[in-house]
Amino acid sequence: MFQHCAVTKCKRESIAVCHCCKENLCLSHLEEHHDSPISQLNLLVDEIDALEARLETTDTHQTIQECRQKLDKWRVDYHKMIDHLYDDKCQELDQRMIKKIKKQRDNITLLKSEVTERIREQQTTHEDVKPLIEIMHDLKTQMNDIENTCLQIDINSLPIDNNLIRIRESNRDQFDLSTFPLAFKSISTFAKQDGVKLASNDRFMLIGEEKMLYLVDKTLKIVKQKKCNATIITDMCWSSALDRFIVIMNCRLFLVDERTMSIEYMHTNIAQQCIKCACLNRKLFLLEGQWRSSDYVGCKKGPSIIEFNLLPLRQLIKEWKSPITCSAEEWIYDIQDNNGKLALLISESMDCVQKKLVTRLELRSSNTFDCLWSYRLDMGLPMSCDLGKTCVFVNHDEVLIIMNKNNLALISTDGSVKETYTYYPQPVNIHLFGSNILAITTATEVNFHEL
Length: 451
What we know:
The protein has 451 residues and is α+β, with helices and mostly antiparallel strands. It has helices spanning 27-57, 61-121, 126-147; strands at residues 16-17, 24-25, 185-188, 197-200, 205-209, 212-216, 222-227, 233-239, 244-249, 252-256, 263-265, 274-280, 283-288, 304-309, 315-320, 332-338, 341-351, 356-365, 371-382, 391-393, 399-403, 407-411, 417-422, 429-433, 437-441, 445-450.
């Protein structure tokens, strides 16, 4: 029976049926149909060649190099810790013997002075000499003890195994809020109005709240704590250059040693009061101003950001003032750093009826301070709130930010909202501990999420 070619708009009579496709085809389209798979294969060969060329030119050195730099830093840091511990124990050994020798020397000096005085007076009796002889006998016994002292050192092996360092794969350009994990651990806090502040290095997280500092290790256990005389802690960050935490207490800079938890005033030539900080290599960026955002209202001056050099000398490099930072009617209440970029949260206006902040997030170059992108958002936060770290870099350019009370928003590299996530209870601060632990503070606790 007569059948048309299966190709649309072809009026010719079919002469054959393709056994593969079960379609009726005319002579012309049969030849095309026969050649089509070959053409597809040729195109596929071209794509394979292009993919092979792409594979050959893929630069994995940068990825490996970044990981090796982290390994090198880990090795150097722990070598420093071992060296510090070694120096401390050597000093402890010396001090133990120095203390013994000093006490013996003082006793000998005292006895010698007493004997010399008796000889000078020439009126000593046998009864006077007897206790001196007994003291001399005791000193000889003590000297024998000193000479026979044997210090024992008990050294535990370092708990180092292969699981201490984990290598895992991740896509630096992808952060998926839709699969945001539940908190696997929480630490209760006691801070009230001003909340807790967070900072971390590769080993420890520092938690600051109401006159107390807590050091948390990677197992999220509080390993050390220190009382501080601060009325308010407004911010803190880690300085790899100084190997110390920088903590802003009462608008002044302090250095906190993770080993001893000692607190040392950081001497600078900066006259302004500072409320926020961010470290980039050997540079420290400081936001000057009043510690409460509401204090900026009506100041008509605009905040300044100070670029400060930490090494080799601590000195001011430059100061970015209004209108470069923002207009005189605006203020900045958060500053974050990452890979040569600064993220700034800047107020645009104040809704005095609702008492809410209308803000924008700006990504700027840390070298030129040029704005790379800007995104306007309604933070939905009370105007009297002392904000902590409300945004964090989750990869090279994308920023995760607390927005609209209970919402977390992921701002992509072009300055647009990529995803949002509703978080309960209401988040206050957000911080990335290492590369895979996200810490979010609420009014009563710090929640930890493994990414």
